[in-house]
Structures are given as C-alpha cells and as structure tokens.
Design a protein that fits this description.
19% strand, 11-stranded mixed beta sheet, alpha/beta
Length: 363
C-alpha cells in the first residue's frame, strides 16, 4: 500500500537533526515545508497488519519531511512479512513476534550481507483486545481459563457458569459462542496463543503458533477480516489489536486479584516488567513477555511488534534511508504519532536508548 498521499507534521530522521530543527522552529526559523532534505529513494516494507495505522502515520510524516522518498508498506501479516524479508523482496519487515532462535540459525536473509545478524526493534507496543458481539453486553470480566475454554471450544454458550461466575449482575443470553480466529499466519495469533498457554496451561494445551492450532470456529483473513467477522456476527468473539476494537464489547482480563482492562499504559507496564531474550546479538532486542505476571496494573495480552532490518546490508544503496526511517519511528515524535493514530503505547526512554544504539549499528 503506497501511503505517500497522506500528510502530517514533518520530522527529521536523525536525533541531531531533530534537535536542530526543533530549535530552529522555536526561534522562528524554517518551517518543515521549507526544510531541505537530501534523502531520496524508495523503501519497501511488508508484514504485521497490526502496525498498519501506525505505518500510515509514520510514512506520511516521513515523506512530508523528505519529499524525494517513497515508502511502501504492505500489511500482509507477520508471517508473510518475515518471509518477504527472508527472500529479499523488502528492505524491512514488520512482525508481531521476533524471529525464533532456530530461524535465526538457519539464516538466509537475502538482503543482508552473508554471516551477519539482523536487528529487531520493539517499536510498536499494543494490547490485544478480546472483542465480542453480544447484544446488551459492553464488557465482561474473564479469567485466563475461561478465555482459553471459549477458544478451545469447551465453553460453548454465553450463559455458561464459568462466564457468569465473574460477571455478577450481567444478563448473559442463552446464545451459542462463535469464536473467530485468524486464517493467516499471524503474530497476533502467536501472541494470543502464547498468553493462553502460559496463563491457562491446563485448558490450552497447544503450542504458541502464528497459525491457529485447532479446527472449529470461524476463520478470517487479517485484522480487518477478523474484526468484520466479529462485528457482523451474533455471539461472536475474537482477538485483535486493541486499536481496532471500535464499538465492540471487550474483556477485562484477570491479573492477580483484579480485572484489568486493556490500555496503552497497561501494555507498556507489562513490557517494562519483562526481560530481553537471552543469547541474542547486540542489536536484536527481542522481549520475552511475562504472561503470568500478577503485578498491579499490567495487561498480559499484549503484542510487541518489531521493525526488522539487516545489521549489514549486502548492497549499501538504501542503508541511510533505512536508518533514517527507523530513527524517526523510534523518536518521541514517531512514537507519539503512532499513539495518536493507533492507540499504541510509546516505548520508554530506557528502551529507546537501546533501540537507537541498534539503529546506529546498521551498515
């Protein structure tokens, strides 16, 4: 999807130039439209549909600041994005999970110089909302075992005692539950099934996977397809990037002794409470989310979506452009643009420092 038609306030791609531009603006200097940019060329990215709204905002701002740059991002899904990047058909990828250790060991990233690493930057943090469409019900409190039972097909009616037990005073209809899952290889699915397996292992006995692991329910392509299926159904329930929940009913998830509704703040809290994966290259900032945390105020069904690039590109043509675009996304301005467009959680300052160091290492 070519998004160069959008226009929002401009940014400059490196931290030094960002600072200088801010000072000039404050002192009555050049407006963004008057600022000169030497960047030119075309970047191709593909991957996570969860990032789509954020990518539209990022691309619009970056292209406004750099009129000789065109960036195309295809929200084809995380699995397709990783495959496209592996094959060398894109300059960068968006993915709702990091590459696994065994995938990294296989290597073969066609755009990257041989025997070099990749950088994985956690630049889009968002809660995954459990969304449903039941007339007259706007929100439900559910524990992990009940959510897992619904999607595993062992809880099949909305007035099931397990749902009623945590929703005193809510009128639950005698209505069949229709779980909706993604039909494509999806990082959102992988994050959701990882949560189910970690938080309700006695109920959800399947491995975390981007491909839905069981038969039954209704399948829909991409985030938009899943949201449409839940919206147009009756008694439907699904999972999607929270920015797409709209007017659908949503679930408050049990964490410890409380039920926590999704929010950018709660999503950021669980990320800051989780460690980086061990054994990775210096620029690979994969995070291992603590899905079973009982800390107050954290929301455990969260996706950390990555921007993925080569540590060293085989051809240097677009290196400066890749670094500049990623630098903007990581900046406070870029993170705020995504928060406004998609409701995501801006990364913390400490995480930004690590991300900037990783971007600086790209060559």
């Amino acid at each position: 999807m070519n998004l160069k038609r959008f226009g929002v306030p401009a940014v400059i791609a490196t931290a030094a130039v960002l600072a200088l531009s801010s000072c000039a603006s404050n002192e009555g200097g050049a407006t963004p439209e008057e600022s000169a940019s030497s960047l030119a060329g075309n970047l191709v990215g593909a991957g996570a549909s969860s990032q789509d709204s954020a990518q539209q905002a990022w691309i619009a701002a970056f292209q406004t600041a750099n009129p000789d740059v065109t960036i195309d991002y295809d929200p084809s899904g995380s699995g397709a994005g990783r495959e496209t990047f592996l094959e060398g058909a894109s300059d960068f990828a968006g993915s709702d999970r990091a590459f696994k250790d065994e995938e990294l060991a296989e290597g073969g990233f066609a755009k990257c110089a041989p025997d070099t690493d990749i950088v994985e930057l956690p630049l889009y943090i968002s809660p995954i909302a459990v969304i449903f469409n039941v007339e007259g019900v706007d929100t439900l409190n559910l524990d992990a075992a009940t959510i897992a039972g619904i999607f595993a097909g062992t809880i099949v009616n909305w007035n099931d005692p397990a749902i009623a037990a945590t929703n005193e005073g809510v009128t639950l209809p005698d209505l069949a539950i229709t779980p909706v899952h993604r039909s494509d290889d999806s990082g959102t699915t992988e994050n959701f099934t990882e949560y189910l397996g970690a938080a309700a292992p006695d109920v959800w006995t399947f491995e975390a996977d981007g491909v839905w692991p069981i038969e039954g329910g209704e399948a829909a392509q991409g985030t938009s397809g899943l949201v449409d299926a839940v919206t147009n159904g009756n008694g439907t329930i699904g999972y999607a990037d929270a920015s797409r929940a709209g007017d659908l009913g949503t679930v408050a998830v049990q964490v410890g002794d409380e039920f926590v509704e999704y929010s950018p703040e709660a999503a950021a809290a669980i990320v800051d409470a989780s460690p980086l994966a061990e054994g990775r290259a210096a620029g690979d900032l994969a995070i291992e989310i603590d899905r079973t945390s009982t800390e107050a105020g954290v929301y455990p069904i969260v996706l950390v979506s990555y921007l993925i690039a080569c540590q060293e590109y085989a051809e240097p043509d677009n290196v400066e452009l890749v670094k500049s675009y990623l630098s903007y996304i990581a900046s406070a301005e870029g993170q705020d643009a995504a928060a406004e467009a998609a409701g995501s959680a801006p990364i913390s300052d400490s995480l930004r420092e690590q991300v900037v160091t990783a971007i600086d290492s790209i060559q």
